[in-house]
Amino acid sequence: MSELTASHLTVPAGSPDSGTDAENRPIFVEEKRVLGIGVSTWPGIIAPLVIGVFALGFWEWIVAYREIPPYVLPGPWLIAKTLVNDWGTLSGSLWITLRITFAALIAAVTVGVALAIVFTQSKWLEMSLFPYAVILQVTPVVSIAPLIIIWVGDINLSLLICAWLVAFFPILSNTILGLNSADHNLVNLFQLYKASRWQTLRHLRLPAAMPYFLGGLKISGGLALIGAVVAEFVAGSGGNASGLAYRILESGYQLRIPRMFAALIMISMTGIAIFLLTSWISHIFLRKWHESAIKREN
Amino acid sequence: MSAATDMTRQAGGVHGSRPLVSIRGVSKQFANGTIAVRDVNLDLARGEFVSLLGPSGCGKSTLLRMISGLGEPSRGTIDWPTSIHDATGHAEPDLGFVFQEPTLMPWATTLKNVMLPLTLKGMDKREAEAKSAEMLGLVGLKGFEGSYPRELSGGMKMRVSIARALVTHPAILLMDEPFAALDEITRHRLNDDLLKLWWEQRFTAVFVTHSVFESVYLSQRIVVMAARPGRIMADLDVDAPHPRDDGFRTSAQYADLCRVASEALMKAMYG
Question: Are B119 and A203 inside 8 Å of each other by CB?
Answer without folding.
Answer: yes
